[in-house]
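Lay summary. Proteins are chains of building blocks that fold into shapes, and those shapes determine what they do. In this project we predict the shape from the chain. Here is one chain we studied, written as its sequence of building blocks.
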Amino acid sequence: MSAVTVCLLTYGDHLALVRQAVDSIRTHCARADYRLVVGANAVSPETRRYLASLARSGAIDRLLDSPVNLNKCPMMRQMFQDLETEFAWWFDDDSYIEDQGTLAHWLQAARAAPASTVLWGQAAYCGHPSAFTDLADALGFVRSAPWYRGLTPPSWLPGGKGEFNFRGQGTGDGYWTFVVGGCWMIRTAALRILDWPDPRLIKLGDDVLLGEAIRQHGWQLANVYPPGVAINTQPRRGDVGSCAPGLNCLNPPPGGIPPSASCCGAPRTLRGGRDPIDALSSPAPPTP
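And here is the predicted shape, written in a compact code that computers can read:
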């Protein structure tokens, strides 16, 4: 039986991206090693015909075709139903495998990890909710989640993540640690326990909030280096929600924390097998 189900999300009129992603999987992974589930959100007629032909030939094991855009997380919930493999490997359609042996590399990292490590990918950090979500109250969202286990969410206020003098700065720990959402691998058992994705999520911030859900359960995430995958190669497409424009690393909210803390990014020094939490020591906390 295959160890991993590859879950590929497609959207809109982007047949070239879909072909690139599918071809990369079929070229670089032995067919016996994976199952392939594809979610099609409001794809073009050409893309629909292409995916349907792959499903008929057996190249796709399960195709979920929605004529309307369900958005990322509602479609993801459907794609994660009835998984029978030990791991799920998620791909946005603008991510694709670059190297032969990439699947074996990721599975080796996963199988060598302790049971408490449940998520693998490109580890990253974020210093302020406005940089990753349009939720009015991200901390309240965490505290009201069914996966909340009582750990204080990230915050620069004293007490954030249980810290009152983070790195000697007199603040809480406001860093959200996560794995970049364009490509990641997770234990299927963890998906079941978390009932992921959270039914309240639509699109924005699902990757960062998954990182927090994992932290709430006392689990760990791990960086995969080199990933052997080109991740999120295209600008965001479709409706991004109601997030205010201009919130990014170089333009934090008025009165907010310094750019060094509001930034979302993947630390360049991470290497496979290293604890990503320990490796995220380079960003400086805000000055009180």
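What the prediction tells us: The longest helix spans residues 15-28.
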